[in-house]
User: Fold these one by one.
Assistant:
Number 1:
Amino acid sequence: MNKEKLKEILHDLNTIGYYKINIVDLLGNEGIDSFNEISEFFDKMLSNPQINHRLETIQQGLNITGKDKYYEITHQEYLGRALGLKDGGLFNFYLNNFFVDLAKEFLGTEEPELYNALFFIHGKGLPERSGSQKWHRDLEGLKILKIFMYCTEVGPENGPLEYVPKSFCGGDFPINEGSKTMDDYQRLRILPTELEEQYCTPNSITFTGSPGDIIISNNTGFHRGGFIKEGFRCMTHALYVRPDAIYSPKDINYDENVNFVDINSQEYKDLGEKQKYLKILNPTNLRFSYGGINDSGGMRGGQISNKLTNSFEKLILNNQNINDKNKIVIILKDWASNLELLKHLKNNGNKIILDIIDWLDVDKYDSQNNINNPNFFPDLLKEYYDGYIVNNSKMKEWWYKNMDNDLKKPIFIIPHHWDERFANLSLAEYSKNPYFYYLGYRGHEDQNCFHVQKLLDGKLLYDDRSNNNGMPGNRYFQDRPVNGVQINIRKEGSWEYCFKPATKLSIAASMDSVIITTYDWSIQDILPKDYPYLLKSTDYEEIEKMFQYVKDTFEKEEWFKAQQMLKQVKEKTSLDEIIKLYLEIEKYFTNEKS
Ligand SMILES: [Fe+2]
């Protein structure tokens, strides 16, 4: 990397506010390749009949779009969608190491965010300046790095970019009112004051140039461009901002139709380290009734949102998106009976899916009679639901027979994924091998895991991680025990056995432990029948024997077989795998619409 060049550019950006250079002089062969790929995109765009027709209308001064910026045609109009990682190599170009390093240095952040990558063509239009043809400054932040690249010859007649040196935020511009108060740059004022206006034109610099010329600009400074008297102009630009910029891709109002990155695509995975510079989101139609980081709302709301959009909040219903139309809203158990919400969502044309998880009416629940799959579910507002999510296949059948037998409504099976935080815990050696521990929710009268207390008192279990210093709900997760053995004991046929997700199993798998477990419905789907440490009953003697069996087979065939099977559970219940099931829901309803 050319350190001297980087220094020189930084110096100019911080003093006069701009730098111009040809991309080949800056990036050599890499620059040539990128330029060619980008040019090819423009060639295709220009030979598209619709785009061609639009350009002709602009040249005649016709506004057939009804928009202010009618004289501009972007990739969106050509592609009919947002620009992605595959299109024209534009993201790759703007993610080259030199630009990224420059953005880091200039913006003073290790994680600059790249967005608003745009292919655009400007035509002749009307004889009066409008929009960005007038002096203005960009307002995304107090420091903005914008890189433009010309893809056609740009002379005085076809809309060269113009810039007023030193007029950027904090710059040494003689009448820079904004330099006195930074607030002035915070979205308050886009146009120059009258005094500034008088000062702009006589002091400005005009960038005429050749294809491949780039203009790097501190774009809080006054600039204008694209005012074309003859011909047209093809160019690209992209923006780099600090993560704390006023407008950033994380912004709720950010236009997802300009750029999108499918974070589950191969191209995204191939970016490796550079993924972090792209906070541009995958425009999914999924929404969730509530989120968070922990518990079921966090697991099946927040974490799914984060996986799809890099934000725990983005897909969770809130004041900004509650009136969105035609989405697929997943209602998590606790909100299942919120009639007002369901009505509102239905009126807006949303599909409503109930994720049952372990939904329960505490008033109906009776632990004495909690056998043979009794119906502890609350009354279901089934006329509002377009489908359901259950956590295992037997539950799917049960739900259809007992709760809603409308065959038109899909029932999706989505097991619980494991929380990535567990897999990242550090490994800890304990003096006992194997190391028996308990981690989880015991349930009412320990129905969600029998005998925990007795096993602890009898010193069969070495460690109870279900609470922290006696604080229920505050489970502690300080490490992953080497040779750990988790336990899960539910009474056959009980409500817990049938409907509770296999959380203890997936967490044990994520921590590279094995598990002693009953064969609950949710476990039957993901753990083979010949798993060595399956309990046949919940009798205490049987459990004692199983503990002994695990000790006897430690580091023998059965132990390794159990480890191997848990490894497969870890893969099957990772968020990477489970997210595919959520995308299937989206596909199902999208295909249904078209
Ligand atoms: Fe601008």
Number 2:
Amino acid sequence: MHSDKLRAEIRKREDDLVALTRDLIRIPTLNPPGEHYRDICAFLEKRLAARGFQCQMIRAEGARGDSSRYPRWNLIARREGRLPGETVHFNSHIDVVEVGRGWTVDPFEGLVSDGRIYGRGACDMKGGLAASIIAAEVFADMIPGFAGAIEISATADEETGGYGGVAYLAEHGHFSPERVQHVIIPEPLNKDRICLGHRGVWWAELETYGAIGHGSMPFLGDCAVRHMGAVISEMETSLFPALAAKTTEMPVVPPGARQSTLNINSVHGGQEELPEDFTGFPAPVVPDSCRIVIDRRFLIEEKLDEVKQEFRDLLAKVGAERPKFTFDLRDMHEVQPTMTEPDAPVVRAVAAAVAETQGVTPEYVVSPGTYDQKHIDRIGRMKNCIAYGPGILDLAHQPDEWIGIEDMLVSTEVMALTLQSLLTRDDH
Ligand SMILES: [Zn+2]
């Protein structure tokens, strides 16, 4: 079949695409705590089962975040073609982040205005989920004799690490290379960009210790905050310049993230903050503990061991100058960097579809932060995975979040043409 027919059929279903996106926005799947997961999965199951998909609702029982009050529900829908072949899987997260301040429209109404659909999750990423569903439905309706299978998953908790979503499904074999050969995650990366992967992450908590004492005689105690101050001062002097000098071949966007970075997420030292209704002064006490949480983002050219050693070396240097310096460094969380090869089959198929629909070569990018590809890569052992979807990344998590209807239509065309090139064997 000529691809023009697929594209024309997608244009005919614009109203369906818009209505589906609005319906998804109207289910307020806020995370945390993780509300209405079951409702949105049941809504999608009803739609997809009626269109020939076999659906499975899976609760990530016992996963991080799962509870009887806030169960972590996920949906996997699969539609088989008439011939054996490979499986193309579209994975979208169903959760949205908190609303926050500054909205001028109802965040859960799905207002349509000037070619845009507004709402929390419109671009991140209910618009992308809707686009992949319309693409799969159009493709399967127009070319029912296709080879292989299409899967659509709607998964929980991406915004909080994905442990009750893609990680759980990957641990239970749903993303293994024997079952799934191509994965597209329709995160809002813009309709002409292909995201190949992400940088690595190391989170750790550093605690420095001191000795409690009276604040009027600090020399009788040992101030843990001063020890931490020395650590932060050394970071300013040596670590931050060293990180800025480490650059990468990864095409990270924005370009400011094409280097190693470190954020100090929090500092806590000394007494707890006093209750708001307490009208007295704090007591004069020398702090015996100070904690920071660091968020180090590393490059594909770096090894996690070296990243940790670099920080330990800094602590050793501080310790050499401060006799009473004692500390604990606790690992919290780590993610390896990943980057799919630009000549991987799914990348080539999407790139050809972008060229055909938009007349441009796609821009290949890498995300500064991680998303669910990390679990598909590490647990699922799947290297043929990208993020591609409609929407402007900068609008994610913002007030008055929106997605452009024309962008969604173009992305839907790209996804349908990608299915055609990966799941048909003739005439393309
Ligand atoms: Zn997202």
Number 3:
Amino acid sequence: MRGRIPGTNGEITCTSGGLVRIGWCVERFGEHPPGALARVAVVERTRLRLHDGERVFPAVLPTLLRRARPEARPVVGDWVRYVEEGGQRLVKDCLARRNLLVRADSETGRPKPMVANVDEAFILSALDGDFHPRRIERYLNLVLAAGIAPLVLLTRADRAGAGAADAALARLAEIAPGCPAQVLDPRAPESAALLAPYLRPGTTVVLLGSSGVGKSTLLNTLLGEERRRTGAFRERDGKGRHTTTERALFPLPSGACVIDTPGLRALAFTPETELAAFADIEALAESCRFRDCRHEREPGCAVREAVAEGRLAAERLAHYRKLLAELEARRRPR
Ligand SMILES: Nc1nc2c(ncn2[C@@H]2O[C@H](COP(=O)(O)OP(=O)(O)OP(=O)(O)O)[C@@H](O)[C@H]2O)c(=O)[nH]1
Ligand SMILES: [Mg+2]
Ligand SMILES: [Zn+2]
């Protein structure tokens, strides 16, 4: 089977049977290595569920991989090689990743890899109850630091007051200049058509956002069937109930793959995380007189100069400083 993937820079041709349905592409991952290949659809405590483009089946991890450091263990979206052994499938190794989305444990700061080999991240945020631009900014940083393209989707507009959507879009333009964002009802079949340009064959999209914002609802709409359980939105405090408990990858009829994730209670960064959502500030900082300028009171600060001249929002500099301080605190030995 040959599938054609309309890429942004022209057409990419992909081969390799059913694997194309779940995102395999020679141009991206190299030639199919010898042996059986599959994509990690679900990670359970001691087993994985793999997808080979035709079906989902269980596989076990060898002790070496089970005991490996978190970044070396397969995550949803990874490509793995496996062998049949003693009536079960045993994972042999994990192919090199194109990217890895990693957050930190909010207590220990240790890396918690989430998903691998993702092209797009849809960051969902509800307009009623808890519209938190700072939270979106954190998701955005997580995604950009992994080299993944973000799209912010504002949901539950029908439950928010008139003007809430426009106000939120204006707010996003301030804190995330240049980041694409749109208002969307995850329940509406038209939403699938709206997102079609992001869901080309071969593309893998991860759904991110707090609990109850409509991630699983959107997945069901894109699949065209109710495959994933969805929950109720708790009105009082705007916090969802955490309906989804495991990350899982689903191939869509369109040829794209979507990874549904559980809503996170807190999003912490590993000490190494780049402040990729603030690349404009870091570029300005290169012109500061002092290399270690903190953009506070130092003379010759190009960043503060940009704020004074209205080229940079003071709020973004404040957010950048806060995140920088948070990362520095994480870098200090405990
Ligand atoms: N009124 C309205 N309800 C929505 C909208 N989007 C989602 N919902 C509802 O919100 C509830 C929560 O949706 P889910 O899809 O379960 O949310 P989730 O993001 O998957 O939540 P977790 O799995 O807990 O992380 C469901 O009852 C949806 O039908 C919307 O735009 N408007
Ligand atoms: Mg869910
Ligand atoms: Zn400076």
